[in-house]
Amino acid sequence: MTKTRCAWVNKDQIYIDYHDNEWGQPIYDDKTFFEFLVLESFQAGLSWYTILKKRENFRTAFANFNVEKVANFDENKIEELLQNEGIIRHRGKIAAAINNAKLFIEIQKEHESFSNFIWKYVQNTPVVNNWNSIKEVPATTEISNLIAKDLKKRGFKFFGSTTIYAFMQATGMVNDHTKDCFCS
Questions:
Q1: How far apart are CA 174 and CA 38, in angstroms?
Q2: For this structure, is 48 an active site residue?
Q3: Model-level pTM greater than 0.85?
Q4: Which class in CATH covers the domain with range 13-175?
Q5: Residue 118 to residue 164: CA distance in whole angstroms
């Protein structure tokens, strides 16, 4: 029997697995938060499918998303990453990942973890929406606007409200599975 999934899921197994096992599932560990922070910022202007296909390459290129290691990447590492055909080779996004890693660590120090910081925006409880169709799912919300404004003030790059909302969906802060989806 075929499972009904959200309309955005294509037939590629990598997309199906992501939808079925990750998207909308609450996470609390900082390593996974940092991974999605990097991946979502690289996704800006591209499809998420493109990022998913390159995810393992990103893991290798970005030290398995070890935030301390990424925060210490230097110009030589940037040049190396710009030659890596397995990732998105965009100097600005690579520099942003390094910058954002440093700021991520500052937030960890300030709030004991990034998880503590980010979950406060939804009162530590996932926002569960009950959309009838994918057309109803917003690109931004008041909460994503607030987070984007806060992160921008702190110096984060490539993190506008639309990217933040996708980050919230990816990390389960928001559950936007449509009513007909078996994951809702």
A1: 18
A2: yes
A3: yes
A4: mainly alpha
A5: 11
